[in-house]
Amino acid sequence: MTQSCFFKVMLCFQDLGRKKREKEEEAVGPDFEPWSAKRGEILARFTTTEKLSINLCMGSDKGKAPSPGSSAVSEKVRTRLEELDDLEEGSQRELLNLSQQDYANRIEELNQSLKEAWASDQKVKALKIVIQCSKLLSDTSVIQFYPSKFVLITDILDTFGRLVYDRIWTMCSDPRPLPDSFTVEDVNDTAKETCLNWFFKIASIRELLPRLYVEAAILKCNRFLNKSGIQETLSRLTAMIRGIGDPLVAAYTRAYLCRVGMEVAPHLKDSLNRNFFDLLGTFRQISGESVQNQLVVQRVEVPEYLTLYSPAISWILQCIAYRAPEARTSVNGDDGEIALLLNSVMRAFRPEFVAARATDFIGMIKDCDEAGFPKHLLFGSLGRSLACADPPESERLTILNEAWKVITKVRSPQDYINCAEIWVEFTCRHFTKREVNTVLADIIKHMTPDRAFEDAYPQLQSVIRKILTYFHDFSVLFSMERFLPFLDMFQKDSVRVEVCRSIMEVFIRHQVEPTRDPVILNAMLHICKTMHDSVNALTLEDEKRSLALLIIGFIRMVCFGRDFEQQLSFCVEARATFCNLEPVLVQLIHTVNQLAMETSRVMRGSHSRKTAAFVRACAAYSFITIPSLSSIFSRLSLYLLSGQVALANQCLSQADAFLKAAVSILPEVPRSISIDGKLRSSESFLLDFINNFLATLLVVPDHPEHGVLYLVRGLLNMVQDYTWEDNSDAKVRVYVSALPLLAAMSQETYLYSIPKVDSNETLYGGDPKFLSEINKLCETLIGQILDHLKALGRDEQSTRRQGALAFSLFGVLLAHGDLRNNKLSQLAVNLWNLSHKHGYCDTRISVRTLEYVKHQAQQPDMTHLSDTVQSHITGLLLGIFSTDIGTIDILALVYLPLPCKATTLSHQSRQC
Amino acid sequence: MSVSLDIRLKRANKVYHEGEVVAGVILLVCKEPLQHHGISLSMEGLVNLQLSSKSVGVFEAFYNSVKPIQLISSNIEVARAGKVPGGKTEIPFEFPLNSKGNKILYETYHGVFVNIQYSLRCDMKRSLLAKDLSRNCEFIVHCQPQKAKVVPTPVNFTITPDTLQNSRERTSLPKFLIRGHLDATNCVISQPLTGEVVVENSDVPIKSIELQLVRVETCGCAEGYARDATEIQNIQIAEGDVCHGLSIPIYMVFPRLFTCPTLETTNFKVEFEVNIVIVLHDDHLITENFPLKLCRV
Fold first, then answer.
1. What confidence tens digit (pLDDT) does each residue in B125-182 have?
2. Contact A243/B248, CB-based, under 8 Å?
3. A119, A499, B29, B143: most buried, per Cβ within 10 A?
4. What highest taxon heads this organism's lineage (chain A) (predicted)?
5. From residue A445, how far is each of A387, A418, A448, B209 by CA, in Å?
């Protein structure tokens, strides 16, 4: 280093609140970044792989305590001390070969034993622990780790300071707690004496460093003794630090003193400034023989060594800069020192302050010599400030150019990317895609040789994150030539997927309009493919689900407008690409179905030859995609839905195929399926599906080559053969719900139909043969149901089920049956009786049903109802329920709205 | 049956001056009423002199002259024989602190060969079957502040190889120049010893700079005496190769009990000295000695 260089740095301490300053005697405000915020950063930054050692010699330090109990009070203390001495005399422990983690654990153990000792009233032992710990700070072997060591050990000191202060505070808190703003007069003699004892004891600690640290730790206790104590002690300790020969140890001791000082008395700026200037005064030691020899022994380069200072100096400067009055000073020193200082100034001062003078700072950085403090660190610090505060607009481009000129020359890829990553934010904030593209190109150029990117994934990821925060327009983003090549640098799978995921999240959040931009589509497809390809047998369900959601989000955003064929071919491509994620396939089928319906809407229902071919292509797409799904219910519902879509588009044979396929896979439905990880019976789902299916069948015309009601028969056969759960009425329930369908099919005009599709009503035109087929089918079904009811009657326990089933059949007959038929009406009455035989029936429903019957009976050509049914049922009903319900209740129920025949069916049709 | 006897002084710091009243309470805690044959309280002040082992042989002749010197002694009866009720009993007492005859009440001092100690002793006599109880409690006496004004006598010093005495190998010594000053050698005992030391230059790096506080105790009389110097404490003020040209503060608090105002009587003397010890990296030890005069104001 060139010792003779003579630089002047003008430091301007900003004035934040000079007016307020007078009153700012107590604690610092929230605008002061606390030490706890720095802690983690330091621990993460200063690490080592070398072996560490802890040397603790409890009690073997003779000269330390002069004082078996420094007052006559302490006969007790004296004996205790002697005991302790005996106990631990010479218990010198040296722990060698500790890894960094071991070291931190050891220190934490000491912290614990300090608390334990204190809690068990072993104050002397506690003091010894603290002294031994602070002694560790004079050991500068493995110097790279020193800042972290400082952090760990000062935690213990803080604990100790708090314990002592709290103890003395509680001593004065009898009978009522001491106010926060207490004065010396409020403190009782015993507390003062205890406090004084601590100070005498500490004053007799033999070694300098522990004496300094421990006294600094209990600095706050001076409040108990006199008003000016803190101020005097601070300036005395500041002066005493000069006795520490090692400049690094001294710098950190100063940082600790400033830290304690800021906590206790932030208004005392004098000693802060004194510390700073003393620090500058000792800078020349860095080039001295002792330090240089040490660096040679430890094989540490000067630039690296200088960075070890930066947390301490930054902290001291931050303390000084906090609400400081204007002050100017010039500093003389050589390059390394100036740079070190500059770095600390940039980190400690408010970003606004730094940003306003960015050009000046760049000038000063450029003047520094490369051999000293590393420049990329300087630019890193500057960039960090500029990321939060804006420099004047006119200077921005110059700043970027000047900065990048230096950054691009940094050799080590790790240093380069650390610095470049910071500057990406500034670039994104103020410039367009052109500049960002250039920056990306530069990063690629630096990081590609020797696969340097492999060690820099976190930084590269952060670059992407920053770009995504500022660029939400994906057409701009993907039109950066270097963006995708940049993504290619993420070659580790997990990182790659994470990056893709973050891009997708931003896309879904910010892309509002559907897009057909080929640039976006290509890029997004590429990104989604990367995510999809990461899925393998070991991927967790949750992971798959979230990936699928992201991809679905993308697919939904794709829209080619009226170019339906393009959209279909996109879906074909997407299916090929995302074949491993089922939810995506489901979404694709929905998209294609929607596409078919959209086509039909555009054509107002009547397809031209071309569109007819297109919708058939859509149906074909769905038909070949559905079988690749593993979830049986997805398949079933998609077959049904696609069948409905095909029907709506007049593709009769396709619809037939879909529905047939659905029927043919029914036997595969397992009896239980897992929902949210729990095994549930599939019965209710299956019933729902079948009901839905039946409702659709009304409008499906019979295939000319197959027999009458081919699909209905097929379905019922499948239902019969299906292995239902034991003791379940599901099969019979299906039969019961098939009856309304058959009734609806025998009508002259159907309740609903599909435009341009001829249903069976038109095909058969009420042909008596057709009707008799239906009747036969009905008879078979009712016969089956009655058999089942009989079977149920045999068992005492199933009477409730029998009642419910009988009642539902009664309902169906009442709503859909022709009760003029004597046999049928007799059956209905029997069913009513059966359902009420064991009294399980819900009275309200019974009453309402009865009212409905009465109501119907008043309609013309329904009078038969009153004749046949009323006499039987009313008598029975009144007989059964007169005990339960008063006449008033029955009268009240008369006026409830009643279902009629049409609504019952239309309700069912709504399900499809 | 457990009984505890304790003496509690009113002043938390237990410091008294001649002519003041030592006040406090005797605290008795017992579960059941307690029968006793009288409680008495005595106050005693003693100077204990001891000859160091190396001088014993020579000075055996006037062994008598080192018997303890009694400075104060008095006794009062606190309670006649009777009964103390169960629970906590506090018996207040007051003792005037006045010397015996024309003796002076020296300040409390705990040393090696000289010990000046004041104590209160409470005794409770009990029946033959039960043990007598007693309790000792030390209190501290500070002598009357000195009337005359203390004139600080600053001392400047310069240490170079040439200023050293009793150095056998003057030629082989590395070069160094250390300057400094003590603000006073007439020190007030309640104030710290202060000053500065500057390492102007040194060929060999400094390892450590220390302040060694030494007591010099002399026992004896006209026929002969024994003089012994022992270390009280050693305080490091600089560690490692300190920055040259930068002044390092000298600062040492005089420990309580182990120091007292410099004392000179016919039978014994207690004096103090401070050594500034500079340890060089090659373990050369350079010591500069300064006699101190301590006083109380």
1. 888 777 888 899 999 999 888 777 888 889 999 998 888 887 666 667 888 899 999 9
2. yes
3. A499
4. Eukaryota
5. 24, 15, 6, 56
